[in-house]
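Hello everyone,

My group is preparing for a crystallization screen and wants a predicted model to guide construct design. The compound we'll soak is zinc ion. Before spending weeks at the bench, it would help to have a computed complex in hand. I've included the protein sequence and the ligand's SMILES below. Output in structure-token form would be ideal because that's what our pipeline reads.
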Amino acid sequence: MQILYIRYLAARPLDEVQCVAQTRHRARCTAKMLTPDSLQGIWTLVPATAAQGQLALPAEVMAMYDLSSLPYAEQLRWRTQRCREHAAAPTAGDLALTDWEPFDPFVHRAYVCPRLPTDMRRPRHGGGGTEAGW
Ligand SMILES: [Zn+2]
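Reply:
Good plan to model first. Here are the tokens for the complex, ready for your pipeline.
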């Protein structure tokens, strides 16, 4: 995915990426980053490079979840991997490392997919009971 013009490989599917902050109960926050009411990025096909504007072989494209159209604060929230509540509470420490690794088209070749995802997975309805209705 692309956050603030830098490309990252996520360690898990985007709908499983979870807030890294520590709650008052000293447990890791269980809030997911991708929620029905959060601003959505755009799946797009881009040249398989580590950054925008770099040269790539013409045939090499990859599917990427692009957050570039989102407000800066929202992209920063993704980069620091915090839910809304914890993005607004900077004193809460991080209990886990973020899932982002700078994307390298050579090292991460196995993850380069030249097609957009067909099953645009959306957060499940009902399951958690905390989601606003869609
Ligand atoms: Zn949180």
